[in-house]
Write a structure and sequence with these properties.
It is built from nine helices and no strands. The chain is an all-alpha fold. It is globular and about 50 Å long.
């Protein structure tokens, strides 16, 4: 046990094994994007044979098992850090929603998964906050989690014909602002950085370009809201150009 703890400690101390925007980074991102594409192509074939629902349930079960393992990994003593390990990050919330979205027809979870995946979690492929290489468990925890979120977010419109409406957008923005407000208060109280709205002196990725805290938190909310709006906009334009009826207020998928 002592040897195992020492190994994990060494891995965590020397996680950074590749840099952003290098050939290795591009290769890693491309590999996981290809994984998503492969799943979508396979699901499309199954849909034509009317066998897709069983595959979707299998994905939901596999995703749920991964969520359990993912949280156990971060909450175990060798990895636990209250400032980062609690399952309240945006990705923690999104990955939970993604499993529910695959298993149910609850439109709210479809909407949350779509917007959190397309508008926000895609950022993890461009500017990952985890730079460990494939030899580290941190690499697999980060990349599988975000691949699942983005993959399910694409699965909904590509395979299940989900089309976000302005009602979906407003609901997600309202819940997102409420969540971010709660994280802001929590971060301000303990000096943490959940949802990237805390007093972190060295914020990751594009957040570092948004100035000083606490004003930085406002920019995070505004940019996230803009990203969600942009994720909805193509569908609104397609409806208008296609002469479709106005967006429904229905809660049905």
């Amino acid at each position: 046990m002592i040897a195992t703890l020492a190994t994990f400690a060494e891995q965590r101390a020397s996680r950074a094994s590749f840099e952003l925007f290098t050939h290795e980074h591009i290769l890693i991102s491309t590999a996981f994007v290809a994984w998503i594409a492969g799943v979508l192509l396979f699901a499309h074939r199954l849909k034509r044979k009317r066998k897709e629902p069983a595959f979707r349930r299998l994905l939901a079960i596999a995703g749920t098992l991964f969520v359990i393992a993912y949280n156990v990994f971060w909450l175990c003593p060798m990895n636990f850090d209250a400032a980062a390990s609690l399952p309240i990050h945006i990705c923690d919330v999104a990955i939970l929603f993604s499993g529910v979205a695959l298993w149910t027809n609850w439109r709210l979870f479809w909407s949350l998964t779509y917007f959190l995946g397309i508008a926000l979690s895609t950022q993890a492929f461009a500017t990952p906050t985890e730079l460990a290489g494939p030899g580290s468990p941190y690499f697999w925890a980060f990349w599988i989690a975000h691949t699942q979120i983005v993959g399910v977010a694409l699965y909904l419109p590509v395979i299940l014909d989900y089309r976000p409406t302005w009602v979906d957008l407003v609901e997600v923005l309202a819940l997102g602002i409420t969540y971010t407000g709660a994280m802001f208060i929590l971060n301000a109280s303990y000096g943490w950085d959940y949802a990237f709205v805390g007093p972190n002196e060295d914020p990751p990725g594009v957040v570092a370009l948004l100035g000083e805290w606490p004003l930085r938190a406002l920019w995070v909310v505004l940019l996230a809201s803009l990203a969600c709006t942009l994720a909805w906009l193509p569908w609104a334009i397609a409806r208008r150009l296609g002469g479709s009826p106005p967006e429904p207020d229905s809660k049905a998928p």
